[in-house]
Write a structure and sequence with these properties.
Strand order of the largest sheet: 15-14-13-12-8-11-10-9-16
Structural class: alpha/beta
CATH superfamily of the largest domain: Dihydrodipicolinate Reductase, domain 2
CATH topology of the largest domain: Dihydrodipicolinate Reductase, domain 2
Number of strands: 17
Strand content: 15-25%
Largest sheet: 9 strands, mixed
Helix content: 25-40%
Number of helices: 13
CATH class of the largest domain: Alpha Beta
Radius of gyration: 21 Å
Order of helices and strands: EEHEHEHEHEHEHEHHEEEEEEEHHHHHEE
Length: 397
C-alpha cells in the first residue's frame, strides 16, 4: 500500500489516530448485509460488539440471539427510530458500522463522527456530491476515520495487480476498466418491503452503484495520491420496458490523461463481471471474463494458470489475512479481509487503506454520471475533494 507522512495536518490524508487495543463496535442495520457482517465479526479478534440497532424488531431479535449463542456478548439493543443517534452518544463505542439503505449512509456517518466516533459505511458512502462534501468536511473537522466498505479493493486478483503495478511490471498505466455487471432481474422487487435498492436503481438515470468498479481502478491510479479524477461523460440507453433498464456507461479522464471505462448493468442477461482490466505500456491484466496476464517478454498466462502469479504478488500483510480467513472457513474472503484489515489498522494506529476522500471520489460518480447522461453525454467536472492537497506536493513519501 502507498504509505506517506502528512506534512500538513489541516487535512486527513494518511490520518493516523491513537491505537485502540480493543475496538468497541456498534452496528446500525441488521438486514441481510448487516447480519452477514455480524457473523463475520464473531471470528475477528480484538473487537467487542457493544450495541446493536435496527428498527425491525425481528432483525434485532435475530442478531441478539446470534450473539447470545456465541456467549461472549451482551450488547445494548436499540430498536427506537432514534436508536442510531442514541448509539452515537454512547461512550463505550469506538466504531459505528453502518449497514442501512444508501439514503441514510452520509447523515448517519456525519452524526457519528460529530460524536467522536470512527465510522465504517457500506457502499456507496453518499448519493450526492453535497453529501460527499459533508463527509469530507466532517472528517476533517473531527479528525475521525470515515471508511467506505468497498470490499472489491480486497479482491485477491486486484491486490496482486496493485503489487505488479507498483513494481513497474505493467509499465505506465494508460487505460483501466471497472464494472458492476450483475443480472439482478429475479431480485427486482421494487414494490416489496426489501425493494429499496431496486427502487433507487430504477429511478436513477446514471450509475447509482459505481464503487465496485471505480474503487480498485482509483487505487491503481493513485487517485488523490499524485493524480485525480478530472471529468466524465456518461450515457444511459433509452428503454420502453415497464421498469427502467439499469444500464450505464461512463468514461472518465484523470488530470494526468489516464482514461477509465466504468460500466453498470443489473437488468440484462449479461454474465457477472467487474471487468478489472488494466492496460499498461508493458503489460495487460484482466480478471473477467477470463483471467489473463500478459507481460512484455513473457508468454501470456490465462485461466487457472494465473493462480501462482496471483499468489506470488499478493502483498504479505494481505496474504496473511486471507490465509487466516481460509483457515476459519469464512464464506467471503474479500469481506473478511476488508474487515480484518480495518480492525488491524485501528488497533495499531495505522492510516486506513481507504480514506474519506476515496469515499467521496468514488461515490460522487453516482450523481455526476446521471447529470452527464441526462444532458446527452455532456462532460461533467469531478470535484477535487482534497482541495488541491492530493497532488503529492505536500506529502513526504
Amino acid at each position: 500500500m502507498y504509505i506517506c507522512t502528512v506534512m500538513n495536518d489541516s487535512h486527513v490524508l494518511q490520518l493516523a489516530c491513537a491505537p485502540l487495543p480493543i475496538v468497541r463496535i456498534g452496528f446500525i442495520g441488521l438486514g441481510n448485509r448487516g447480519m452477514a457482517t455480524l457473523r463475520r465479526y464473531l471470528v475477528i479478534d480484538g473487537v467487542e460488539i457493544t450495541a446493536l440497532c435496527d428498527i425491525t424488531q425481528e432483525h434485532l431479535g435475530e442478531a441478539a440471539a446470534l450473539l447470545q449463542a456465541d456467549g461472549r456478548y451482551s450488547p445494548a439493543l436499540l430498536g427506537e427510530s432514534d436508536g442510531w443517534m442514541q448509539m452515537c452518544h454512547r461512550d463505550d463505542i469506538d466504531l459505528i458500522y453502518i449497514c442501512t439503505d444508501w439514503l441514510t449512509h452520509a447523515p448517519m456517518a456525519c452524526y457519528a463522527m460529530e460524536q467522536g466516533k470512527h465510522v465504517a459505511i457500506e457502499v456507496p458512502a453518499a448519493t450526492t456530491v453535497a453529501e460527499c462534501w459533508q463527509l469530507v468536511d466532517t472528517a476533517e473537522r473531527t479528525r475521525r476515520h470515515c471508511f467506505m466498505l468497498e470490499n472489491c479493493c480486497y479482491d485477491t486478483f486486484h491486490q496482486a495487480t496493485l503489487t505488479m503495478a507498483e513494481r513497474g511490471l505493467l509499465g505506465t498505466l494508460t487505460h483501466l476498466e471497472g464494472a458492476y455487471i450483475h443480472d439482478l432481474r429475479d431480485k427486482y422487487d421494487a414494490d416489496g418491503p426489501k425493494g429499496w435498492m431496486s427502487r433507487l436503481c430504477g429511478q436513477h438515470k446514471g450509475n447509482p452503484y459505481p464503487t465496485h468498479g471505480i474503487g480498485p481502478v482509483c487505487q491503481l491510479l493513485k487517485i488523490h495520491r499524485g493524480d485525480r479524477l478530472d471529468y466524465l461523460v456518461s450515457m444511459t440507453p433509452a428503454t420502453d420496458v415497464p421498469h427502467d433498464v439499469c444500464v450505464n456507461n461512463t468514461l472518465i479522464r484523470t488530470v494526468k490523461g489516464k482514461t477509465i471505462l466504468l460500466q453498470y448493468d443489473v437488468t440484462t442477461p449479461r454474465p457477472y463481471s467487474r471487468m478489472q482490466t488494466v492496460c499498461g505500456t508493458r503489460g495487460f491484466v484482466q480478471k473477467y471474463p477470463r483471467r489473463c496476464i500478459m507481460l512484455d517478454g513473457q508468454e501470456p498466462v490465462k485461466g487457472d494458470a494465473v493462480e501462482p502469479i496471483i499468489a506470488q504478488y499478493t502483498q504479505p500483510h494481505i496474504a496473511r489475512i486471507q490465509e487466516e480467513g481460509y483457515r476459519l472457513g469464512v464464506p467471503n474472503i474479500m469481506n473478511y479481509t476488508m474487515d480484518r484489515r480495518l480492525i488491524q489498522c485501528l488497533r495499531e494506529g495505522l492510516p486506513l487503506d481507504m480514506d474519506v476522500y476515496d469515499a467521496a471520489e468514488w461515490s460522487c460518480i453516482a450523481e455526476l454520471s446521471e447529470q452527464s447522461a441526462q444532458g446527452g453525454g455532456v462532460p461533467v467536472k469531478i470535484p477535487d475533494f482534497t482541495r488541491g492537497r492530493g497532488k503529492g506536493d505536500d506529502l513526504e513519501c
